[in-house]
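Fold it.
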Amino acid sequence: MEKDNKYFTPHKHRNNVDVVHILNDGNVVLSLHELEPFEGIFEWVDRTIIANLIDEMIAQTDGSRKSIIAIYENGDIKTHTNISMNFTKYGLLSKIML
């Protein structure tokens, strides 16, 4: 994977937009390092689409909040806008697959 791709820019440079990958078993992958063993599972992800989603969500996210892009192993991508900055229970996102 290209480490300099905008998709993988550090959180602080994405203006409070987190990108997480969620495996079918509910485990959450939060970092590029953690994602490396699962690269094949998520190779369907179009980085350009994710980069565009990040840009869109930056505009929609209040300064004191954060937004999340959840990329699911099954091929779904869900966005969650203006979540509390204190939200860290990303595993719950596997339970809100609607």
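The first helix runs from residue 32 to 35.
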